[in-house]
Amino acid sequence: MRLVGVYDADSTLRGEVGYWIGARLGRRHCSLCDITHGSIRRRPEWTACTTALAVPFDTYHRNDQPDAVRAAAGGEAPVVVAELATVAGSSTETGSTLVMLLGPGDLDACDASIDRLIEAIEAAVSRLGISWPAN
Q1: DSSP assignment, residue 42?
Q2: How far apart are CA 57 and CA 90, in angstroms?
Q3: What per-residue confidence (pLDDT) applies to 69?
Q4: Which residues are 99's β-sheet partners?
């Protein structure tokens, strides 16, 4: 299992600068960005959190996310998706299944809190009956 977060921003220089300016002017908002980043760079608390998680947590931007993640998210961003290993003999070619865990509203409800994000992920995993590896 791994978690994949998708920011509601583009990874290009123009996209990054445009998002930063728009966020400062109150015109752009990405609740996943608010959780993982400060005003300029990645929050050290986020780095520590991902290191302590029992599964990898990868992040992408809207424009560089894998097509399978985009499809699982229904084109929405920001989101958190779980990639689950499939059982042998499954009909999927990649050996994994992607499941939407948290949508934009769920991430907004985290109110920029890393702890609330982890709680929301754990609640979604439990609600969906997904096995969460022990630390």
Answers
A1: B
A2: 24
A3: 96
A4: 82
- The predicted model scores a pTM of 0.86
Distances in whole angstroms, Cα of residue 88 to Cα of each of 82, 85, 96, 98, 133: 19, 9, 10, 16, 19
- Burial 79-98, CB ≥16 within 10 A → b, else e: bbbbbeeeeeeeeeeeebeb
Tell me, what DSSP letter sits at residue 35?
A: H
Of the candidates 39, 74, 81, 85, which has an alpha carbon nearest to the alpha carbon of residue 60? Answer: 81
Distance, CA of 31 to CA of 27 (rounded, Å):
13
Chain segment 6-64, per-residue pLDDT in tens? 999 887 777 676 666 766 777 777 899 999 988 778 999 999 999 999 999 999 999 99
* Cβ atoms of 11 and 59 closer than 8 Å: no
Nearest to 23 by CA among 36, 42, 9: 9
